[in-house]
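Usage example:
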Amino acid sequence: MNSPFVSDVPAAAAHTAWREARAAAGCPARVATVRVPVGEAVGRVTAEPVWAKRSAPAFDSSGMDGIAVRAQDTVGAAETTPVLLTDFEVVDTGDPLPAGYDAVIMREHVHRTGEQAEIRAAVPPYQHVRSIGEDISAAELLLPEGHRLRPVDVAACAAAGVVELAVRRAPVVAIIPTGDEIRPLGATLEPGDILDTNSLMLAAQAREAGCAADVTEIVRDDPDAITAALRAAAAGADLVLLIAGSSAGRDDYTARVVAGAGTLAVHGVAVRPGHPVVLGTVDRTPVVGVPGYPVSAALTFDIFAAPVLAELEGAAPRERPSTTAHLARKLPSAIGMDDWVRVRLGRVGDRVVATPLPRGAGVLTSLVRADGLLVVPSGVEGHHAGAEVRVELLRGLAEIDRTVVAIGSHDLVLDLAASALRADNPLITLASSNVGSLGGLVALRDGLCHLAGSHLLDPATGEYTLPYVDKLLGDGFAVIRLVHRDQGLIVAPGNPLELAKIDDLTRQGLRYVNRQRGAGTRALLDHELARRGMDPADIPGYAREEHTHLAVAAAVSSGRADAGLGILAAARAFGLDFVPVAQEPYDLVLRTDSLADDRLAPLWDLLGRTGFHDEVEALGGYSCAETGRRIR
Amino acid sequence: MNSPFVSDVPAAAAHTAWREARAAAGCPARVATVRVPVGEAVGRVTAEPVWAKRSAPAFDSSGMDGIAVRAQDTVGAAETTPVLLTDFEVVDTGDPLPAGYDAVIMREHVHRTGEQAEIRAAVPPYQHVRSIGEDISAAELLLPEGHRLRPVDVAACAAAGVVELAVRRAPVVAIIPTGDEIRPLGATLEPGDILDTNSLMLAAQAREAGCAADVTEIVRDDPDAITAALRAAAAGADLVLLIAGSSAGRDDYTARVVAGAGTLAVHGVAVRPGHPVVLGTVDRTPVVGVPGYPVSAALTFDIFAAPVLAELEGAAPRERPSTTAHLARKLPSAIGMDDWVRVRLGRVGDRVVATPLPRGAGVLTSLVRADGLLVVPSGVEGHHAGAEVRVELLRGLAEIDRTVVAIGSHDLVLDLAASALRADNPLITLASSNVGSLGGLVALRDGLCHLAGSHLLDPATGEYTLPYVDKLLGDGFAVIRLVHRDQGLIVAPGNPLELAKIDDLTRQGLRYVNRQRGAGTRALLDHELARRGMDPADIPGYAREEHTHLAVAAAVSSGRADAGLGILAAARAFGLDFVPVAQEPYDLVLRTDSLADDRLAPLWDLLGRTGFHDEVEALGGYSCAETGRRIR
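Running the assembly step on the lines above writes:
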């Protein structure tokens, strides 16, 4: 990935170079101070220390419901020698202490009879009296400069007589989408067009960071047009995000434009994804050239934009909590790059297990599905399976602790179950990672998941899953039937090649798309081939592997392939045709002691509901006749 | 605190009782679903599963800048046997893969000469090709129901062709302030009046939880008026917060009003602060009677309102990260109540140390200053000093790790330094807890803080602080002079009793206010008394103790006391007169190896700046002649 056109500046050095460029260009260190009513100040950062103008409470007051007394009048009172008071005043919590009294006796300890109050214990002076200034003393320092105001802070300010606060105004972030192929959301797309989802995301990230965000029109790939847009945006913003064109392709003008209109401090950082970042300034405004790949764009905001925006407000950047976790599998990483890996997390046994998600810069769903971010620093060549790693959390740890982790084969019914469980109870998460049936069984054996989804055919016996459970896992594991489903050939609409059976796959010129080794669907194909005495080498495309049913359907849909084995639901999703070749059971494998796990109870309940069966069968190609049955 | 008028329902039972009451009253389980454009959906919760309408990418595209080729044309290419291609097309990242080609070779690996491209390595089919659906496959489940949408989520939805999302509308929270003594913010206050800071805080808390908040006019203490306000609010809101009057005093109508207008489920929970909570329903709307003490109000929102609001949205409640910490001191707690204790946190050595803050329900600053919340469950009778406890974090742990912890005597100069350090660098926090000079030295000895502020006079030698450091701490500790300051008698404006010296304190009828044992100011008084052969018992009020200079000044200001020993700045803060009796050094004590602690470097730098000296001396009663000098 080391490119001669874009440099590999380490992240820390990039921060420093950009900071120096901002200082040299005279970029303001802080945004301006504004005075706002306390009620509008939540979320803003104090621009001055806040001193209390008044004490709170502003007077000595009763801390209880009861009577105000003179402590000296109660001297000698005891259970055996009660004292009758005539000089007292009834007070409620918060009432000013009436003049002449110096203590309060709780209502519950007063045995009153008309004009007299009977007391059975002496009280010291100032008992249950809230002193003036108990909470806030006039002139004390209530809040320092550089403090992001929370609800309790503004309430305390108001209590201290502060009606207006000097705060930093919200920084303004200008976002400029560029690219001849970029279309606004809602546009009708021609082949090759790409929707401008990055502006939407970056604007939302900026707002989440407490800033105002301003998205300009999409600018075409033209250096002059980009320069004009950049200058205009820089004039009215505290930070400009210029999207795409930050690499070194033919239409990548960002670096040149920034260098021409201002200062180019950094072009390319040793961070993946996010390598082709541009950092610079234009007209005293910091500029980030944000890579166009969506994961790169999101992380570039976090790594480079967010800290500068916090600095402009004079506040510490928001920080994510973190936890330690154990890697579910080996995580290779190239030396020389900070590698930001998205992971799913779940607690299995007493460990938090981290399963890496796809690492492509274009796979935004890897960030959507991520529970955490793990950085493999540039000096580290990855981690072994089981290694303990530090993970920044994108979801709360308590939520992660409650998550049911399924690793194995992919099936839409699992997704449907996940959504149905959550609709019932928002505290439930069923997270599934797709590594194929065999991979799931291995993950279960290694204590990396609660459930393994499997439809793995044993060629020797013709049985599904159970022989593998016997062989790989042994005693102490149970199997629950999730569903029966049709497997078949996914083909173009109208089945133009008129494929009817597995035997047709050797046809000259046909382009097959296969599933990866360890996938149940691959085992099914291999079994069918063996049964027929067919040679895999005779199937054109046998070596081309995809990792999910939907990816197979996508390949057929795009015309890259003519056929692939998969499930009806995947064919339907892409409007493709389907030639059934087999019905197979899809099962959930788990430790027997997990059957009693509280987290799984709602799933067993769901699998017993006919309403859910109806929903599943409505997908097509599914039968729920044995759904929920324990078969081992 | 056990009241016969308000019950002590355990928190879990209170949640259950309220849930059952809501169900019985027919309160909606969820707020209504609305359809909003993806761009407006961030922060909202999905009301249905979101299925992808389109694949992303929507076409096979180039994953790199380079040339599109046919993989088969590159067969045999190697360093020693380069292949010259004539059939290729230049592509940039994201370009659709031109028809007829099936792989991309990175620009850096192409040695091009005009119309020909020289290739020195064979490439497999689909190298650097982003497949259709690599990120999102049409018809896959993108997001489950009950998912709070983040920037990456809406971007993924947009990429998947989803232009509108079905989400739960923001719940509406109605807030009703009540009380004859409550005045709106900005009002001119008469004695006994209290500002309505709770509405401001609760509205901000509701907005922070993603809700709309609507604050009504202040309602007087009249059951009919409160009933009318409650019914009106319930008609237009998803949750009503009725502030104050939730206890059982004479003017506490909340419980009766809720019972009269709807269902009273709970009156009083075993939670401190927050005990007199009312939970119920009115007209199919849940109602919380929120205690009027501000800390109780804030925690009542967190404990009871926030979970219901999350449930109405069908989402998991926001959750605070937590950490383990060691208690700086003993923490007693009554059996039978969940005790929510506010703590300051700091990392000293390899431990996070938690110092409990004042526990009064009225001390809002305890929540403002808190870094974390610690719950002592109702079955636990407190913790020993040093005990390991679980703390919910109110500040980020990285920020806490960077915090300089000062425990000891209080001085305004420390506050001023804290604010100045933060203004320079928002990442720096100097947090001071006031326990008196001796308490600070003990805390330093026990590894609970980085700095101990001390002005402790040794009566035997007349020296400050150093003899105690020798005796208590021994080798390995350094002392840095912070400031010299005037100590004197704080008296009413005009010094009506004409107090001129320590000797005057025995005057008949005088009301003295003292500092607590272990405070440097107390040691100073005792020393001055001993020097003069005076008997403490002869000073009226000697036994009445306050814990800060400002509290002493507040006592004089309120007329509760005639005089107290303290610093000029405290007298000035309350507009009081000051009779100097001594000048004393105020020093910072620390471990010698802490001198090299990076976290403290900015403090040493600040203490050397004349600008800071000027600011300090402008407070009055301070001299910076020796500020920053190491004296041990």
